[in-house]
Task: structure prediction
Amino acid sequence: MERKTVLVSGGAGYIGSHTAVELINAGYDVVIADNLSNSDISGVEGVRAITGVDVPFVNVDCCDKQAFAQLFEQYNFDSVIHFAAYKAVGESVADPMKYYRNNLLSFINVVDLMRQYGRHNIVFSSSATVYGEADTLPVTEATERKAATSAYGNTKQMCEDILRDASGAYEQINGIALRYFNPIGAHPSALIGELPRGVPQNLVPYITQTAAGVRECLSIFGDDYPTEDGSCLRDYIDIVDLAKAHLAAINRMTEGRCNAKYEVFNVGTGRAVSVFELVKTFEKVNNLKLNYKVAPRRQGDVVAVWADTALANKELGWQAERSLEDTLRSAWEWEKRVRNIK
Ligand code: NAD
Ligand code: UDP
Result:
């Protein structure tokens, strides 16, 4: 069988590096493109160490169309998974143009260059943030998208729309948007994981850094929400399971099994977990006590969102497998490795 190549833009980052590993393990050739604006080369080195494959890495800004085009000249991939984007919600509210410029321009370049070079399949990293505060739960792919409350969220909606329109208009282009819920954890090897810069914005890295003594105390944002224990509900998806959903999407496209030119899938577990439950599970499986306190609600948080995963289960033949316990163990193993804790 002829080997197929996949371009992984943003592949030095958290989700991209885990996805590169799953693609390579499944027999794909991978090219990683990243400008290392929110990562470093260790992500690529981790992929190489896990797979034993000397994965090509190109340091390029996807917003620089000319430089990005060089990569299309050099490598003959037919599919791209586009992870390259900024992702800090708060920063995007403070500096929206930074987000519109990077996230939109890089994606427009991907679509344009795929067309220009006669390539076909585009998988886009979308997010459950497009659902906002949903009227019914769990959310299905048909659940209405709510007006975005941040520039970050808006770029996700706009890129989904760009992909829908481009795949609808251009015979050659097929699109899949994967709406991720809350990715957490690390590769079981602990060779790759999440490397947030500065103070973590997300719950699990804040937890692991607190356990490691890097942060003094975790703040639980709100205990007076209308949920059983008063904290917010989310659908936490293991990073390796999430990576495997990308593999399933690429297989579907390269094997010509798509039902439509543009498809959308929820990538979650279907299970709602509260902040307190997550913290308690982390403590239990890692046999430690976490320093935490209840703090005021964080602006912009939705009360609850979790996925109906029926469509992804059926069409992608994929479902989340790793338990929350194993995932939270892997998150701590990774943090210990990063901090040199025995
Ligand atoms: P990440 O920051 O670890 O990875 C993104 C990578 O893209 C980084 O390595 C960064 O250096 C690179 N990058 C950014 N702009 C670039 C550009 N112009 N050119 C080249 N490289 C560029 O983030 P992640 O958590 O791996 O997220 C990957 C994608 O998934 C993003 O699009 C993000 O919005 C989306 N997403 C993430 C989450 C989450 O909770 N992590 C949830 C939903 C969606
Ligand atoms: N959260 C928290 N303390 C933190 C970070 C997050 O209590 O330091 C809560 C947050 O209010 C939300 C949940 O954890 O209810 C998940 O937040 P995260 O930022 O990880 O993901 P989001 O769902 O906002 O994308």
